[in-house]
Amino acid sequence: MPDVHSNLPPSASKMWISCPPSAALNAKAPDSDSSYALAGTLAHSIGEAKIRQALGEDISIPECTDAEMAEATDQYRDYVLEQIEAARASCRDPTVLVEQRVSCERWAEGCFGTADFLLISDQTLHICDLKYGQLEVSAQDNTQLMCYSLGAIDAFASLYEFTEVKMTIFQPRLNHCDTCTKTVEELLQWGDTVLKPAAVLALAGEGAFCAGEHCRFCKVKQTCRKRAEYNLALARYDFAMPPELTDDEIEAILAKADDLTSWISDIKDYAMQQALSGKHWSQWKLVEGRSVRKYTDEAAVADAVTAAGFDPYEHKVLGLTAMTKLLGKRKFEELLGGLIHKPPGKPTLVPISDRRAEWNTAKNDFMED
Ligand code: SF4
């Protein structure tokens, strides 16, 4: 759920901890209600209602015509119920909280949000965050979950005796479920030594601007000078002689390529939006782009072609994504599981830290032979 009135939202904590002055700039910038965010909000409401209903509450489930969302929220509910069942094996009466407001204002004023699911049993507090997006999110050292954990520790540690916190990201559309476990001690220490000092700087609009991966979620990423400097540093790369780049230099450029590409794309989008809003750039102008011919009335076209004795329609099986949306994942597997082939992907160059196994070039040579 969005952290609506939070000055230091846990969901943006990676950004304001890494770059404290970004908090003030983001607080001033307008929100954009993207269709992705709206879908995420709906998925959370449906997931919450399904869990509450499964736990015996008399509650209706929001209407959902999207089979993929229905399936994803079923999976989320089932996962949550499994966790409750597992907790009951060792604890007679675990505490279950759904969409629980948590606040870690003891460390960071204005830092509060809503934890999707909390389960407290004997030694363990389990926090689960549903992510409906398609960009994989890791639970490892996830600062949003760590903020929620601190909020939950603050609210419940005096009532229960848990000593560790399990933090889970559940991402059904990617079949991704990732858990990170930390002790209460470790989290409290992080709160005191990392979160608190960063929050003080962020609230005062102080501290050093610092660009990095977290800029992706920053509302001023298009016009931020620090991010520009960070990316332009590549252009100032001090290339050594001889005239050809060395392997080390190529690797240094590769390491910056993704950030550079996304920064350039953000700048282009920003300049375009400004121009469309009426801004006149001195060296750039809006022109009409290439266009393609279109039917003015599809029904009339179909009638005319049919009357002439031809079939105006092309009959195609839906693509995998549209078919999954139509059937839902479970039905899709049931009906079509045996009819799906996944060919090997094309080789992709990624950082050595990537979790995928290395491409076997020997096998590739053999296939080419
Ligand atoms: S774009 Fe990056 S460096 Fe600039 S304010 Fe935002 S988070 Fe900080």
Give short descriptive properties of this protein.
5 strands, Lambda Exonuclease, Chain A, 5-stranded mixed β-sheet, alpha+beta, binds iron/sulfur cluster, 12 helices, 369 residues
Class by alpha and beta content: alpha+beta
Please count the beta strands (DSSP E, at least 2 residues each). Answer: 5
Bound molecules: iron/sulfur cluster
- Unreliable segments of 5+ consecutive residues: none
**CATH topology-level name of the largest domain:** Lambda Exonuclease, Chain A
Number of domains: 3
**What Rg do the Cα atoms give?**
26 Å
Proportion of residues in extended strands: 5-15%
In short:
With 369 residues, this protein is α+β, with helices and mostly antiparallel strands. It has helices at 13-18, 22-28, 35-54, 67-90, 143-156, 184-204, 225-232, 247-276, 298-307, 320-327, 329-336, 361-368; strands at residues 95-103, 112-121, 124-130, 164-171, 176-183. The longest helix has 30 residues, at 247-276.
Describe this structure in words.
By secondary structure, this protein is an alpha+beta fold. It has 3 domains: 10-204, Lambda Exonuclease, Chain A, CATH 3.90.320; 221-276, no CATH class; 299-339, no CATH class. Helices cover 44% and strands 11% of the residues. It has 12 helices and 5 strands. It has a 5-stranded mixed sheet. Strand 1 (95-103) and strand 2 (112-121) form a beta hairpin. The structure holds iron/sulfur cluster. Iron/sulfur cluster binds at residues 15, 19, 22, 25, 209-211, 214-215, 218, 220-221, 224, 226-227.
